[in-house]
Amino acid sequence: QQENKTRDEKLQELCAYLSNNVAYYNWVGFYFANHETKTLHLGPYVGAPTDHTVIPFGKGICGQVAESNANFVVPDVSAQDNYIACSFTVKSEIVVPLFVNGVNIGQIDIDSHVLDPFSEVDERFLEFVNQEVAKLF
Ligand code: SME
């Protein structure tokens, strides 16, 4: 019944799959960009509920990636100035932009309770994941 699932249902399952299969992926979610209002909006996610459902471009790790179009790996969030804390249990974060036809339409955001867990393997893997996600758009 795969074809009957909505895109959000597929993304929700993907978040759960990633969170369930990588021990240090503790919060996994998607933010989507509104280029008119220059804000990011929380999409499907798994993990602790967050107050940050809308993030202005430029603000926090996510907002910076909306403008830079580049991966952002944060080994230690306590060392970041422009960071939006969602939970005190979060130690590190990785954000990888999602491109559809060359346009940065959002991002996958992963928080970890572990210090410095993300390597280039995670970056390449999440770039691949986002290339697959892009096909849903
Ligand atoms: N920490 C992010 C905010 C989103 S929460 O991690 C879900 C940031 O600094 O942009």
Structure explained in plain terms:
One of its GO terms (molecular function) is L-methionine-(R)-S-oxide reductase activity. The protein is built from 3 helices and 6 strands, in the order αβββαβββα. With 137 residues, it is of the alpha+beta class. It has a single domain (2-134), classed as Beta-Lactamase (2-Layer Sandwich). The protein has a 6-stranded antiparallel beta sheet, sandwiched between helices. The protein is globular and about 40 Å long. Methionine sulfoxide binds next to helix 2 and strand 6.
Layout: helices, strands, pairs:
Blueprint: H1 7-21, E1 27-34, E2 39-46, E3 54-56, H2 60-68, E4 72-74, E5 92-100, E6 103-112, H3 120-134
Antiparallel strand pairs: 1-2, 1-6, 2-3, 4-5, 5-6
Residues 27, 50, 52, 55, 60-63, 83-84, 86, 93, 109, 111 line the site of methionine sulfoxide.
Unreliable segments of 5+ consecutive residues: none
Hetero ligands: methionine sulfoxide
Helices, by number, come to: 3
Largest sheet: 6 strands, antiparallel
Terminal CA distance reads 19 Å
- Identify the CATH homologous superfamily: GAF domain
Strand portion: 25-35%
Averaged pLDDT: 96
> What is the CATH-assigned architecture?
2-Layer Sandwich
Order of helices and strands: HEEEHEEEH
Please state the overall shape, judged from the principal axes of the Cα atoms: globular
Would you tell me the structural class of the helices and strands?
Answer: alpha+beta
Using only C-alpha atoms, the radius of gyration works out to: 14 Å
Number of domains: 1
CATH topology assignment: Beta-Lactamase
Number of strands: 6
